[in-house]
Amino acid sequence: MISFAAVIVIVFGLQMAKDLLVPFLFATFLALITARPMLWMQQKRVPAILAALIIVSLLMLILAVVGTIVGASIAEFTAALPGYQERLDTIVERVVGFIGKTFNGEEAFESLGDMIDPGWAMGLAATLLNSLKDVLTNVFLIVFTMIFILLEASTVETKFAAAFGRSTQSLKRPRVFLANLGRYLGIKTIVSIVTGLAAGLLTWVVGVDFPLLWAMLAFLLNYVPTIGSIIAAVPAVLMALVQLGPGGATATAIGFVAINMIFGNMIEPRLMGYGVGVSPLIVFIGLIFWGWVFGPVGMLLSVPLTMALKLALESDVRTRWIAIFIGSERDAQHALIKG
């Protein structure tokens, strides 16, 4: 009971401190992605501070350009959102009414129509993008935190060895975890960028409004395995339905399915060579949990946070059983082999 109470206190403490913690988590996320290029530059005898400044400067330039372009689209989309939601509700009411008349169940289908809120998905897209924009307003805190994390990256192993000893077991698990997490985030970022570009090109060709927003949404939600690509496609398809009708919505849906099949099911698994080491059910639960704790940005960081939690649970014999349930089937099989 004491342990359970402590967990509840910690979770609510994290939720109360999310305004401070989210920028630091975002900075850590960016640092893990850029750590490999920085270490590569250091191997080429570039001073650590210079390498960190080069990487951060390039990242700030990219964020400034993308933020300026997408920020205007976010403002326009947010202003026009109530109108789109109203038109979408009208379409749903007509469809439900037609089905009810066809099958002689108007009252039952009207009740079903009252429970369906298709505009929620479009509202979620606006909320997610606006939350990310709010986080990026703390750009100086994020940038300075990222610089210090990158500068510490080359010395953390030495400090860890001094604190916990130089035994192979004490260093192997964190080193493998950070290497896998950094590689996972790096590959995921590249695939997400290409996925976002493909989604933006698709919606632009079909003629859907705000193609830059759907590109950004596809890029962001591609970090969420399995269901992220589905969540990213729904608002764009609904927008196509409102704007272009069933034909445009069908073309958009087929395009998103093709993009996700190519990049999510063919290219990405070949590049990864391994999964995230977390059960698909836990990925979904983690998406909801971290989204509740840290807001929409927590949804984007749900997989890295869940992987970090799994590593922490594995480090203690008393909690290792929880890590096994969180992990994948392959991890459970390895645990059985080790006995």
Computed structural class = mainly alpha
Helix content: over 70%
The tally of helices reads 16
Number of strands: 0
- What's the multimeric state? single chain
Shape estimate:
globular
Textual characterization of the structure:
By secondary structure, this protein is mainly alpha-helical. The protein is 86% helix and 0% strand. Helix 2 crosses helix 6 and helix 3 runs antiparallel to helix 5. It is globular and about 70 Å long.
Gist?
With 339 residues, the chain is mainly α. Helix content is 86%, strand content 0%.
Key features of this structure:
339 residues; mainly alpha
Secondary-structure topology with pairs:
Layout: H1 2-16, H2 18-43, H3 48-102, H4 106-115, H5 119-136, H6 139-153, H7 156-164, H8 168-206, H9 211-221, H10 228-244, H11 246-272, H12 280-294, H13 296-300, H14 302-314, H15 320-326, H16 329-338
